[in-house]
Write a structure and sequence with these properties.
Elements (H helix, E strand, L loop, with lengths): L4 E3 L6 E5 L2 E8 L2 E5 H7 L4 H10 L1 H4 L2 E6 L5 E8 L3 H6 L9 H24 L1 E2 L10 E2 L1 H7 L1 H24 L11 H7 L11 H15 L5 E4 L5 E4 L2 H24 L12
Parallel strand pairs: 1-5
Antiparallel strand pairs: 2-3, 3-4, 4-6, 5-6, 7-8, 9-10
Helix pairs in contact: 9-10
Protein name: Antirepressor protein ant
Pfam families: P22_AR_N
């Protein structure tokens, strides 16, 4: 299928680092887009097959061709889709059909984190993803110039503790309006988890699996934005309790045991 071709200057392209992979993005008609070939190749998939699938469903993925100039001065045509459609394409890939374990794990990582990381990168100037449990891992160069390297290091160290406290404070504030629900920080209290030493990444782990549980049941997930600092998911409290009771506690217990090198714990029986 022939697609409309749009032009972009090479200076308009933004390259984001995602767990060591390079993802090429740009803005088109006010919407952030992502070039698909780098992502497909990062996942170890056949570009020809995925390209044909995307083009065959162009209305579904809102795909377009973007023409830009490569390093050698030649024109390059890149198939792209809006970032908001990336999860839709990722969901069309079944990791269970991938025999190679590393490829399968890479696909699952992209399915869980890449779209949200790209959204944060474009809308907040900061990609808050990866295994750092909400700590800033990638900065837009313009933001980096404004903040300075030293400020970034301070933010990296403090963000993991500051953001949850901001959530509690703003949820309780009538001046900004209450967002009802629970965050991963609240879940720690619900399961009586007070010592999180050595558990870097636990918040992201809980958040991703709880988000999947909500999505499977059509339960909306709210968010509290903090300007250019962060965006924190706020989950439905009853759905969160149901997830904990139906296997969520066990998942958390197993994760903690694996991180700390202990047998699976009988975690946290007293939480509400």
């Amino acid at each position: 299928m022939d697609l409309q071709t749009n032009n972009a200057q090479s200076t308009d392209l933004q390259v984001m680092n995602f767990h060591g992979d390079q993802i090429t993005t740009f803005e088109l008609d006010g919407q952030p887009h992502v070039a698909m070939r780098p992502i497909v190749e990062n996942l170890g998939l056949s570009w020809g097959g995925q390209r044909d699938k995307i083009r065959a469903q162009s209305n579904k993925f809102n795909c377009t061709d973007i023409r830009t100039t490569g390093r050698n001065g030649n024109y390059i045509k890149m198939l792209s889709i809006p970032i908001k459609k990336l999860n839709l394409w990722l969901a069309s890939i079944n990791p269970n059909k991938i025999k190679d374990k590393q490829k399968r794990q890479r696909i699952e990582l992209y399915q869980e984190e890449s779209a949200e990381a790209l959204y944060s990168y474009w809308h907040q100037g900061i990609a808050i993803k990866g295994d750092l449990d909400g700590v800033i891992t990638d900065l837009d160069p313009k933001v980096m110039n404004n903040l300075g390297g030293m400020f970034k290091r301070v933010l990296n160290k403090a963000m993991n503790e500051v953001v949850p406290l901001l959530v509690e404070q703003q949820l309780a504030s009538k001046e900004i309006g209450i967002v009802y629900g629970v965050t991963t920080y609240d879940i720690y209290a619900m399961i009586n988890l007070h010592d999180r030493t050595g558990l870097r990444g636990l918040g992201t782990y809980i958040s991703n699996r709880l988000a999947r549980y909500h999505n499977e049941r059509g339960i909306p997930i709210k968010a509290r934005d903090y300007g250019h600092m962060a965006s924190v998911r706020v989950f439905d409290k009853l759905t969160t309790k149901d997830w904990l009771a139906s296997g969520g506690r066990k998942l958390i217990s197993d994760y903690i045991a694996e991180k700390r090198g202990q047998p699976s714990l009988q975690l946290l029986q007293g939480g509400k």
